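Q: Protein A?
A:
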Amino acid sequence: MSNQARSRWLDKLQPLKGRLLQRYSADRIEDAVRWRLGKFYYSAVREVDLLISINAAGIPLKYHLVADVLLRVDYWVDQNWVHRES
């Protein structure tokens, strides 16, 4: 990790890390982080699988991370956006 990334992300987490360690064991915190990362990874794999399956069926479904994050658009076909209610 670069120094720029460290100062932007990890250094800002130090106060939180200290508070968490006062309440929970390091093992429990590590397990929770692994669980969240695992859920994120599994969700991403499912979305990629869906996109590939639909494209294989001949539907030109598109995806882009910026559209997902900024516009909350999961996918689109031509000018039609697909998004789920949360």
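Q: Protein B?
A:
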Amino acid sequence: MSPKIKKNEGETLPEAQEKTAAPEPKQSQKIRPHKKERSSDTGHRDGRGASIFFSLLFIMVIIAGLVFVLSQKKKETNLKREISSLENKLEIGLSDVKTQVTDLQAQREEEQKKQEEEKKKGKKYAGTLFEFSFYYPGNYSVSQVETNLDESDKEYVALMRQSDIDALKNVQMADAVPNISFHVFANPDSLSPMEWIQKNTLYSNYTEETEVNVQTIAGKEMLMYSGEGLGSFDYYVLPFEESLFLGVVWYGDENDQIRKDIVSILETLELKQ
């Protein structure tokens, strides 16, 4: 490089200036950075656009997320409402079921109570021609039922204990065995119970020596007296519609339980007046 510099020493100034002016194209190269600056501005603009795009995208994502969250909350709220509604319906249904179960239990208890009462009362007998009924002890059986025996005796039912029924096998006359009987007699003349027993001695076994008492059994006022025949008898007489209702118990021993049994039966007597 140094030998070339020496050769240029003899040259004139203009030549030297010309030679020194030769590097001008380098100045034109200095303009190029302006183009780079423009591309940088464009890059900045592109970067800003991308930033705005991503910002908008981010905002849209946030909005979408909020919409999703709100929709989920709405669904959750609706679901809670549906669950609450179902729970209310279930509670109402359970309440109805409990009410029905309670009602059924009450009905069963009432039926059991009635059955127990009927067991205590015993068996039930209902009249054939006339509307009357009563309960009798379980150790008794209906041994005979007759209707229209004659013009006066319209309905007749006899009750006997099973032990007495068994005893009949060794006794020729049924009247010799304790029994309870009920009769419905016609009363065309509308006589009072006292007048009737005095007039119809064939059925009442009434005599002038008979001592008649008035008793009230289960709210029903009736005549009560005793008589003698092929044994001893207790009679109970009370009015029934246009007829007379007569209860009779035959016994051999005055301490026989059968005398109390007829009173227990009369306590359950129902007459349709």
